[in-house]
Write a structure and sequence with these properties.
Layout (H helix, E strand, L loop, with lengths): L6 E6 L8 H10 L3 E6 L9 H8 L3 E2 L5 H4 L3 H8 L2 E7 L1 H9 L5 H8 L3 E6 L3 H5 L1 H12 L3 E2 L3 E4 L5 E5 L3 H11 L12 E6 L4 E2 L5 E2 L6 H12 L3 E6 L11 E4 L3 H10 L5 E4 L6 E3 L19 E3 L3 H6 L8 E8 L3 H12 L3 E6 L14 E2 L1 E5 L2 E4 L3 E2 H19 L3
Parallel strand pairs: 1-2, 1-4, 2-3, 4-5, 5-6, 9-12, 9-14, 12-13, 14-17, 17-18
Antiparallel strand pairs: 7-8, 10-11, 15-16, 18-20, 19-22, 20-21
Helix pairs in contact: 1-2, 1-9, 4-6, 5-8, 10-14
């Protein structure tokens, strides 16, 4: 993807992955962009300003208090003159500064002063990436509209293995190109996409309910990725603790019946992705008052089946989406169960998610990584274990291609 004529301000953080920022400069230049660089003090320990300057063909900035540059409020001019700010590598320290609005050096000050889109490519030790503080900061940045690419899984410079490797330079450049597309552009431009996400809560009484462990992370990531590709996205979300993705119309619901009603009210759409973990059952007669212990033993409930939202939409005879995608979380016989669900529900794809605890946080509801396969009438497409953002981006791109191809069928 070309980004000819676009101006990128590349902020290079202080981590071992900083050496790959030189490859990233080349990737941006190859696509036609102009690049200016800010190096943090720590980044200068890994790459020299001369190296970055030689590749970018422009001055490299390092000092917040440069008298020459500050005469023109350099940190503001740098951030406003760019079309996009890219932070690569985005260290845990830089992410924390961004999330909390700290500004004690040129990099963090430029980020706080900008009115342009920001893309970060996190890179750090796997333990730092999985630390609750980093996860909180990441969610804050996403809620603020910051785009994220990576990190990838692999061996670290410290010898550990896991997620924390900076995304490949070409992947970062491609993500930047999507953010720099003109208004109305992108492979999903002009398409309407609906995504369901999170759990449903089925009341037993005014304070208790039937639910599951779904966090909504994958569904929200898919909605965000589809919007980044230019789609008009509606997200129907059950109760979750994560923020609404920016640039997306969000409808909040509680129960399965409310979710189905919201989905049907937003038809027709070009593609519908049913990622929500909808409760299969609900109480036939929820208590109107809080159930109390009265010494007579545990209460019993009569359960009735909830509506099948995926099958209802997939089997519509009018205004059926061109592409209907379901999810299946399985612990064994993953592909076999997904193929059976595909036939039963009448959808076009099933994203089979292996939740058999294949590794720390992999596939577990509420975790940050998934191992998925795309199951369709055409066969099975196995994907490697990836972060949920990466799964979402790849799925959105796959949907865009499918919708484009379908136009000519």
């Amino acid at each position: 993807m070309t980004i000819a004529g676009q101006r990128i301000l590349l902020i290079i953080g202080g981590g071992i992955a900083a050496y790959r920022s030189l490859e990233l400069i080349r990737a941006f230049k190859k696509r036609g962009a102009s690049v200016r660089c800010i190096l943090t003090k720590s980044a200068s320990e890994f790459v020299t300003p001369l190296s970055a300057s030689s590749l970018s063909g422009d001055k490299v900035y390092t000092d917040l208090f440069s008298l020459t540059d500050e005469a023109e409020m350099g940190h503001i001019e740098l951030s406003r003159d760019a079309d996009l700010l890219v932070v690569a590598p985005a260290t845990a320290d830089l992410m924390a500064k961004m999330a909390h609005g700290l500004a004690n050096d040129l990099a963090s000050t430029a980020l706080l002063a900008t009115d342009k889109r920001v893309l970060i490519a996190p890179a750090m030790n796997v333990r730092m990436w999985e630390h609750p503080a980093t996860k909180r900061n990441l969610e804050t940045l996403r809620a603020d509209g910051v785009a994220v690419v990576g990190p990838d899984q692999g061996e670290m410079a410290c010898g550990e293995f896991g997620f924390g490797r900076m995304a490949q330079p070409d992947a970062i450049a491609d993500a930047a190109a999507l953010l720099l597309r003109p208004p109305g552009g992108g492979p999903l431009a002009g398409k309407r996409v609906l995504v369901t996400s999170g759990p449903t809560h089925e009341p037993l009484d005014p304070v208790r309910f039937i639910a599951n462990r779904s966090s909504g992370k994958q569904g929200h990531a898919i909605a965000r990725a589809a919007a980044d590709l230019g789609a008009d996205v509606t997200l129907v979300s059950g109760p979750v603790s994560i923020p609404d993705p920016p640039g997306v119309t969000v409808v909040h619901v509680e129960t399965a019946r409310e979710m189905l009603a919201a989905v049907e009210s937003h038809m027709p759409v070009d593609a519908a992705v049913f990622c929500a973990a909808v409760a299969d059952w609900r109480a036939a007669q929820p208590g109107e008052e809080k159930l109390k212990k009265d010494g007579s033993g545990a209460p019993s409930f009569s359960l009735v089946e909830n509506p099948d939202i995926l099958a209802t939409i997939a089997k519509r005879t009018e205004a059926r989406p061109t592409l209907v995608v379901g999810f299946a979380a399985e612990t064994e016989k993953v592909i076999e169960h997904a193929q059976s669900k595909l036939a039963r529900k009448g959808c076009d794809w099933i994203v089979a998610n292996d939740v058999s605890h294949a590794g720390p946080g992999v596939g577990v509801m509420g975790g940050d990584r998934n191992t998925v396969s795309i199951v369709s009438q055409a066969g099975v497409e196995n994907w490697p274990t990836m972060g949920k953002d990466a799964v979402a981006t790849r799925l959105a791109e796959r949907m865009a291609k499918q919708l484009k191809d379908t136009q000519w069928v």
